[in-house]
Structure formats: C-alpha cells, structure tokens
Amino acid sequence: MSVKPILKMGEPSLLQKAKEVKDFGSPELLQLLEDMKDTMAHANGAGLAAPQIGVDLQVVIFGTDQINPRYPDAELVPRTVLINPKLEYLNDSPEGLEMGWEGCLSVPGMRGLVPRYQHLKYSGFDEWGNAFSRQVSGFHARVVQHECDHLWGILYPMRMNDMSQFGFVDVLFPELDPHTDD
Predict the structure, then answer these.
(1) What pLDDT sits at residue 73?
(2) Which residue out of 20, 127, 147, 175 is catalytically annotated?
(3) In the prediction, which pLDDT does 114 show?
C-alpha cells in the first residue's frame, strides 16, 4: 500500500493546468493509479486527481462501491479511471445547474455549496488508452466535474457563489462522523 500525502489548498501546483497523458499502460502510469487508489481509500474519498498528490497529469479516479462516510446520502458511483477527460454539459443553461454541498481532500474539514451541471457527458481514456464515454447525472456528474476541475487548476471554493455557505464540516453537519476528514 502506498498512501501519498494530499496537497492542500494554498499549494501553487493545485492552481495549474495538468498535462495530458501520452504514455498509456506504462509502469509509471499504473503505479500512479495504484498510489491514487490507495490514497483515496485511506482518506475515504469519493475521487482523487493526480495533481492532489503532486503529479502534473490529467488523471482522475472516482467511485464508491459502498456508502461513503463523507457522503452518506449519495448514490453509488462506478469506480472509474478517467484520463485526458473532456466534459460536455447536456443542459448548459442556468436551469441546468444544481446547488450541492461539496468537500475536498485538498480542503480538509470544510464544505461549501457549489453550483454544478446536473447532466453531462464525459469522455476520455482508461489506463490502457481505450476511449470511452458516459452520460451521467446527479452525484456522479458532480464528482466528475469536481475531480476534473483539479486538472484545470480549480478548487471548489472558486466555483462558489455565496461564501456564507462555506464552513467547517463539524459545524455545518455535526451528524457526520467526526473522525472522517475531508
């Protein structure tokens, strides 16, 4: 098991656009994915982007195959490796946005109310370079947008419209397990 330190908001590298992956199936990419999976599992994350562990590549993983203690009411999301992603918003009007609470492993202990598109199509590649795409909605769409933002140097507080809806998890949601860290 190789759990990596997760960079926190304030690290300049989290504000940079990551580079595209060109070498699919390489030992380095496969090791990165193992490190990301171990790190995400250790932190009870719903997703993780390579820049969060200091790797400047367009790689995200996400998914929940059981109830996540950080998001106990969220639907399950299939475990996914998504490389060099592209997002297409299926209703990109203001009516297509939905407000939802988000946390982030790089913004520990905090939550904020963030607008995200409810429906989208994402496409990209798996670790072997196989192209795929999915149409998704709800929590799945929110997780994809959140993780892909990390690849473009955006943290969720930068998406918020109302900073009065930003605060500590233990204050906003005291019913959540106090031993789980965002």
Answers:
(1) 73
(2) 147
(3) 98
